[in-house]
Amino acid sequence: MEIQRSQPHTPTSSDARMMAVAQDLEAAFLAEMLKSIDFGKQPEGFGGGSGEDQFASFMREEQARRMTAAGGIGLAQTLFEAMTGGQNVEARD
Q1: I need a labelling partner for 38 at 20 to 30 A (CA). Which of 30, 44, 48, 70 fits?
Q2: How many domains does one find in the chain?
Q3: Structure pTM?
Q4: Higher pLDDT residue, 6 or 17?
């Protein structure tokens, strides 16, 4: 009985696109988590009004993107592996 070895998965441009989508999804998830803890909300003493609340969302989104770029919580990698069929692909560089 001969054991066949599977060919290693070679990353493709579609893999790069899938990882980018997975990272965007992780960033959106993290932004919502930051929103739930009122990250970026200024104390009432500043009195910035509704404009301040709108710009706080930009800050949360950028913070979430940077967290994801720095490795995040691993959600992007998990999603990527699920989308590629779990072919032991390490796409984070």
Answers
A1: 70
A2: 1
A3: 0.69
A4: 17
